[in-house]
Write a structure and sequence with these properties.
The protein has 9 helices and 15 strands. It is an alpha/beta fold. It has one domain: L-arginine/glycine Amidinotransferase, Chain A (5-stranded Propeller), CATH 3.75.10.10. The strands form 5 sheets. Strands 2-1-15 form a 3-stranded mixed β-sheet. The chain has a 3-stranded mixed β-sheet with strand order 3-4-5, with no helix packed on it. It has a 3-stranded mixed β-sheet with strand order 6-7-8, sandwiched between helices. It starts with 10 loop residues before the first strand and ends in a 5-residue tail after the last strand.
Length: 307
């Protein structure tokens, strides 16, 4: 029997955009976004193909993919559903407040209805009304959650309210671990899941992104308490989205979904460390990455029991 893990979901939600474009409203603080030259229709078509191929690769590996279509033009970041909802063992679902106005329209009733129909959902805690109080917590972008050790790691940013993080951790029984993180230019990193990924037996993290030496040491030691292999990423590897990955459960065991670009940035030793624990599953998504997110952002893992 393949090994299973509370950290690695067997099912995911993905959104396939029909009019993909980088989001102008998020460019101010997402320094991983890049301008994409060329025809808008060609970009949208390329993104549609990339999401389709990524979903097919996940399904071929044994991951169940619930695909939803976004045929509108008002939600350019809809391909990143992990920011507006998350799921948790015991049948719990959270819905989150979003910083950018046009991202708030990404929340979908049909996704929540599917969860209630196909999985055992006990409750849905909706924090989205706190947008009126300028409090934001953008899901598993703002937090990287250790489901085994019950820890929620969060880098401070305008998209991560410490007040709301504390409230979430109280409701869902996690320990909050908060820190500052910056990119190679010294600018705050907009989402925690760009710089770290937690698997069952390993963690990817850009410790050099944490400028305070004492806090850097504390975060590293907290990760090591789970007896994980720690793969430290450089600033360049973070910029190539090597940290924006997710561990999933496939037919033949645990796998790590990450972008082809992210995988190519890893050195031989880093790959070998990861391959002791997971099968590496690279997904080719260069168009999507223009929006400043990568594979982890595209995948909302379902930590729920199927009906």
């Amino acid at each position: 029997m393949p090994r299973s893990s509370l950290q690695a979901p067997t099912s995911v939600v993905m959104i396939r955009p029909h009019h993909f474009t980088p989001n102008a409203q998020t460019a101010q603080d997402n320094h991983f976004q890049t301008s994409a030259n060329g025809d808008a229709a060609a970009m949208a078509s390329a993104a549609h193909v990339e999401v389709t191929r990524a979903a097919n690769s996940l399904q071929a590996a044994g991951v169940r993919v619930h695909m939803f279509e976004d045929e509108g033009t008002a939600t350019p970041d809809s391909v990143f559903p992990n920011n507006w909802f998350s799921t948790h063992s015991g049948g719990h679902v959270a819905v989150y407040p979003m910083h950018s106005l046009n991202r708030r329209a990404e929340r979908r009733h049909d996704v929540l209805e599917m969860l209630k129909r196909d999985y055992r959902v006990q409750d849905i805690i909706d924090y989205s009304g706190l947008e009126q109080d300028n409090l934001y917590l953008e899901g598993t972008g703002a937090m990287v959650i250790d489901h085994l050790e019950r820890v929620a790691y969060a880098a401070r940013s305008k998209r991560t309210s410490e007040i709301l993080l504390e409230r979430f951790c109280t409701h869902f029984n996690y320990e909050p671990v908060v820190f500052d993180a910056v990119d190679m230019r010294g600018a705050p990193i907009y989402h925690t899941n760009v710089l770290m990924c937690i698997g069952t037996d390993f963690a990817l993290i850009g410790l050099d992104c944490i400028p305070d030496a004492s806090r850097r040491h504390e975060v590293g030691e907290r990760l090591r308490q789970g007896e994980r292999d720690i793969v430290e990423l450089s600033h360049d590897q973070i910029a190539d989205f090597a940290g924006n990955a997710i561990e999933l459960q496939g037919l033949d065991g645990l796998l790590l979904a990450l972008s082809s670009r992210g995988l190519q940035s890893l050195d031989v030793g880093q790959r070998a460390t990861l391959e002791r624990h997971v099968t590496l599953l690279p997904l080719d998504i260069p168009t999507i990455e223009h929006a400043g997110g990568s594979v982890r952002c595209m995948i909302a893992g379902l930590h729920l029991s199927a009906r």
